[in-house]
């Protein structure tokens, strides 16, 4: 059985306690490898190596860092097939999706920040009347921690690592224990690209062990975390009294608001994607669908028909639209919401059952599910399910839908479908979210700020926001 290893000081090494965790293949429910169940000592070793590397990495020229990051991007692209297969096997997502989105985006993350760092400047002010000039230096923070979830494994892992490295920090990174494989493969790519040893260290293991050791280590000065809201709160509790910088990208329960005047066909096509891409396991999925009453019945019929046509299949099936959910506990949690919904009086329009695929009977497959609800305060409409389940309900006025959109604890993203400019301006102002798409979904420009409000997080990543997060500003005032 293959064993993946920690990547510390430029080398793949066994966990110091020689303890291991099983790694499951969600498409067939079988154990196919083992990953380190690392402990405090592994994190300490990684921090020591990162501290040493920081002395020279923090002083490398922007050109040098940019060159290495670009090389990592090139190598990821050259190894697209290998990485996509590994991602799909580890996570259960359709291979076609990993090839089209996950791995190309991981390469883009490195290439984007390789360029962005060359454009990252600082402010200066001539303080007239006082014969002084102020300017701001931006120093790397030092050793930083990056912790990422399982839903978009390499995509989100690199979204943090690339800006951290570009700004001259050294990194202790932990991928999700559920999907460690592509992070493991990334280590070798970084070595090949010429990243000096110790600059990036990847420690595998459980969140409550490795994750919390990273968060509480006194030499790790900043934490960039993406994951669940509850974990984010636990991290903040430890990191805040230590005055660590924190960027917390947390859960979502995003509204998808559909007005009768929208481009209907485009909306329907995109709503299928925003509801069920990656088995609905994207923090940005629009899991609460509100439809203007005059087109509600038509939408309901068309949407349910299209959802029933989505093919649930093994991730390697090129026609698979829905692959396997990530793990057994996760699919059980998602299915439990179908029961909750029924108890709450929701109308199950389609789906709601496990799917058995010939030859892969123990895989974690379920039908895409649409629930019609009467009241937006029900549990399935308020809690993050993070699977292929959406709710639909009608609305009559802008005020009513704004109120419903804002009625959850989360505020990550929202989609609005309308061709009315005045309405667009009103809703984009009044909806509580960090990201709003109008007449589209998941159209990403890496220069833009990314993150949520309310219980969806604190801080922003993306573009210069990420470069600012990973640097410490120091103002200098010179009187002349
Ligand atoms: P999770 O919070 O369980 O785990 C995320 C990471 O944190 C994993 O690496 C895990 O090992 C680690 N971790 C767990 N407990 C920890 C602790 N006590 N201290 C430090 N680290 C710890 O989340 P998940 O189940 O992997 O991912 C799903 C969640 O992530 C969903 O809520 C989803 O909305 C959210 N998410 C948010 C975004 C965003 O950009 N806002 C993007 C993707 C996923």
What would you say about this model in short?
By secondary structure, the protein is α/β, with parallel strands linked by helices.
Please describe the structure with a list of short key phrases separated by commas or semicolons.
about 475 residues, alpha/beta, Aldehyde Dehydrogenase, Chain A, domain 1, Aldehyde Dehydrogenase, Chain A, domain 2, 2 domains, 7-stranded mixed beta sheet, 6-stranded mixed beta sheet, about 40% helix, about 25% strand, binds nicotinamide-adenine-dinucleotide
Descriptive report:
- This protein has 480 residues and is an alpha/beta fold.
- The chain has 2 domains: 2-250 and 456-479, Aldehyde Dehydrogenase, Chain A, domain 1 (3-Layer(aba) Sandwich); 255-445, Aldehyde Dehydrogenase, Chain A, domain 2 (3-Layer(aba) Sandwich).
- Helix content is 40%, strand content 23%.
- It contains 15 helices and 25 strands.
- The protein has helices spanning 40-57, 62-78, 80-91, 95-116, 153-166, 181-192, 207-216, 229-239, 264-276, 293-308, 328-343, 379-382, 398-405, 421-430, 463-469; strands at 2-3, 6-8, 11-13, 20-25, 30-36, 124-127, 132-140, 143-147, 170-174, 200-202, 220-226, 245-249, 255-258, 288-292, 347-350, 354-355, 365-366, 369-372, 389-395, 410-411, 413-417, 435-438, 453-454, 457-458, 471-479.
- The strands form 7 sheets. It has a 7-stranded mixed sheet, sandwiched between helices.
- Helix 9 (264-276) links the parallel strand 13 (255-258) and strand 14.
- Helix 2 (62-78) packs across helix 6 (181-192).
- The longest helix is centred in the first third of the chain and has 22 residues, at 95-116.
- It starts with a strand and ends with a strand.
- The model has no long low-confidence stretch (mean pLDDT 98).
- Nicotinamide-adenine-dinucleotide is lined by residues 147-151, 156, 174, 176-177, 207-208, 211-212, 215, 226-228, 231, 234-235, 249-252, 283, 384, 386, 412, 452, 456-457.
């Amino acid at each position: 059985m293959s064993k993946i290893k920690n990547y510390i000081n430029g080398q793949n090494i066994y966990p110091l306690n020689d303890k291991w965790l099983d790694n499951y293949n969600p498409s067939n429910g079988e154990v196919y490898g083992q990953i380190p169940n690392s402990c405090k000592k592994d994190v300490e070793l990684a921090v020591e190596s990162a501290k040493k590397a920081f002395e020279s990495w923090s002083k490398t020229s922007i050109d040098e860092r940019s060159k290495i990051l670009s090389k990592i991007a090139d190598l990821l692209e050259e190894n697209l097939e290998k990485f996509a297969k590994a991602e799909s096997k580890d996570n259960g997502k359709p291979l076609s999706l990993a090839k089209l989105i996950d791995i190309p985006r991981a390469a883009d993350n490195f290439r984007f920040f390789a360029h962005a760092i060359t454009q990252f400047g600082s402010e200066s002010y001539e303080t007239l009347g006082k014969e002084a000039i102020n300017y701001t230096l931006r120093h790397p923070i030092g050793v930083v921690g990056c912790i990422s979830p399982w839903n978009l494994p390499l995509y989100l892992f690199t979204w943090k690592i690339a800006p951290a490295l570009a700004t001259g920090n050294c990194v202790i990174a932990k991928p999700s224990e559920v999907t460690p494989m592509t992070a493991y493969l990334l280590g070798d790519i970084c070595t090949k690209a010429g990243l000096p040893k110790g600059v990036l260290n990847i420690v595998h293991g459980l969140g409550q062990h490795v994750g919390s050791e990273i968060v509480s280590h006194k030499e790790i000065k900043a934490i960039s975390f993406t994951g669940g809201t509850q974990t984010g709160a636990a991290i903040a509790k430890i990191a805040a009294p230590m005055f660590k910088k924190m960027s917390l990208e947390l859960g979502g329960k995003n509204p998808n608001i559909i007005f009768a005047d929208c481009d209907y066909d485009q909306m329907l096509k995109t709503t299928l994607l925003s509801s069920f891409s990656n088995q609905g396991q994207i923090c940005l999925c629009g899991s609460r669908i509100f439809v203007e009453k005059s087109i509600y019945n038509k939408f309901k019929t068309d949407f349910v028909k299209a959802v029933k046509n989505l093919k649930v299949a093994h991730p390697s099936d090129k026609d698979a639209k829905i692959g396997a959910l990530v793990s057994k506990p996760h699919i059980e949690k998602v299915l439990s919401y179908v029961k909750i919904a029924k108890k709450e009086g929701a109308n199950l329009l389609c789906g709601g059952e496990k799917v058995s695929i010939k030859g892969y009977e123990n895989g974690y497959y379920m039908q895409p599910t649409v629930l019609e609800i009467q009241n937006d305060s029900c549990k399935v409409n308020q809690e993050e399910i993070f699977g292929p389940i959406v709710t639909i309900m009608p609305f009559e006025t802008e005020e009513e839908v704004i109120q419903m959109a804002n009625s959850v604890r989360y505020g990550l993203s929202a989609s609005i479908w309308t061709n009315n400019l005045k309405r667009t301006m009103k809703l984009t102002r009044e909806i509580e979210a960090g990201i709003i798409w109008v007449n589209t979904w998941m159209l990403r420009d890496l220069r833009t700020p990314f993150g949520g409000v309310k219980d969806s997080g604190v801080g922003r990543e993306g573009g210069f926001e990420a470069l600012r997060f990973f640097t410490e500003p120091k103002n200098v005032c010179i009187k002349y």
